[in-house]
Write a structure and sequence with these properties.
The chain has a single domain, classed as Beta Barrel (Porin), CATH 2.40.160. The relative contact order is 0.14. The strands form two sheets. The chain has a 16-stranded antiparallel β-barrel. β16 and β17 form a beta hairpin. It is globular. It is mainly β. Keywords: Signal. This is Porin.
């Protein structure tokens, strides 16, 4: 009996040690979101309009997307399969389907290899490394998105290498298909990207066959409750296709454990009829200042976001309630996001 008891204790101890050493290998996560949107200074009927930025642009009660992310992490390698369903997901993969006539639900699909503690290789389709905001609403503070995010890349398909140069410095180098051509390469051209990171601040560069973009993304904890995010970018389209430039600040203040308040203040300018704002002067130039005030209230895994937004353009890019041209647009959004 003593031998049996001793062997049993050793087995239990070994099993406990193995469980402590074992890390989770397979995960399922994601989010579901829906919203209500109404113009304050413009119609909400068949003449309803919205800012020229992406997502959260449908009138009345509207659907965002269901996002399901499957991940597997082995000792040295793993994969991510990120699937999206709904209007926001469709807008996110606007350059697809290229191959499947029935539609494409892939937001990200890639495999990676941890070559060493400091080098990781990733191949497949992954969301862009440029910009402060992302496609998933659960990872953004503001529910509607900025002009800078909307007219930069959404996704890349290719091969990238991430290097941890030190505790503070990181470097990414990559080669991709043409931007947002996510399923395969129909052009035979390739884009090249690089990212240099230092303590949460990132300088990004993308050389695409049709444009070049330089982007800075970062932020600072000014106190335990106060955070300031920063994004600035410049993009130039080849063959006089226009340019855009802009900057956005994201001050966010945690008023309690469950409620935070954040403001996105953005300036965005374009030249040579780039076409993001919706109207331009005789030279094809235009600019817009967009102020977005968002509240974020959390109940378990549910986040409720009321949002007021004012877009003020240099040209008459909007209309008012009398259907006359207007340089400004006020709107309201109430979003519900459940993350799992």
């Amino acid at each position: 009996m003593k031998k049996i008891l001793t062997l049993s204790l050793l087995f239990v101890a070994a099993l406990g040690f193995a469980q402590e050493e074992e890390t989770p290998s397979f995960t399922i996560s994601g989010s579901v979101d829906a919203y209500y949107r109404a113009n304050i200074t413009a119609p909400n009927d068949e003449n309803a309009i919205a800012p020229g930025s992406s997502f959260a642009n449908l009138p009345g009660f509207a659907l965002g997307m269901a996002n399901v992310v499957f991940g597997y992490e082995g000792e040295k390698a793993g994969f991510v399969a990120d699937l999206v369903f709904g209007p926001r997901g469709t807008d996110a993969i606007f350059a697809s389907p290229m191959y499947s006539a029935t539609g494409n639900i892939v937001n990200q699909l890639y495999a990676y290899w941890n070559v060493s503690e400091s080098v990781t290789l990733t191949m497949g389709n992954f969301n862009t490394f440029l910009g402060y905001e992302v496609i998933s609403p659960s990872a953004n503070f503001n529910y509607s998105t900025s002009y800078l995010f909307s007219y930069g890349p959404f996704s890349h398909t290719g091969l990238k290498a991430d290097f941890a140069l030190s505790e503070d410095f990181s470097l990414m180098l990559g080669v991709f298909n043409d931007t947002d051509l996510t399923e395969f390469n129909p052009t035979g051209d390739y884009a090249f990207g690089a990212q240099l990171g230092y303590s949460g601040q990132y300088l990004n560069f993308l050389l695409d066959p049709s444009f070049t973009e330089i982007d800075f993304t970062g932020g600072f904890d000014l106190s335990d409750d106060f955070y300031l995010g920063i994004n600035a970018a410049y993009l130039s389209v080849e063959d006089d296709g226009g340019t855009f430039m802009g900057a956005a600040l994201y001050p966010q203040y945690a008023m309690s454990d469950s409620f935070s308040l954040g403001l996105r203040g953005e300036y965005f300018a374009e030249t040579d009829y780039f076409g993001a704002i919706g109207a331009s002067d005789a030279d094809g130039d235009a600019s817009v200042i967009a102020l977005t005030l968002t509240g974020s209230y959390s109940v378990d895994n549910l986040t409720i976001k009321p949002e007021l937004r004012l877009d003020s353009a240099s040209e008459e890019a909007f209309i008012d309630n009398d259907l006359a041209g207007s340089k400004s647009l006020g709107s309201f959004v109430l979003a519900a996001i459940y993350s799992f």
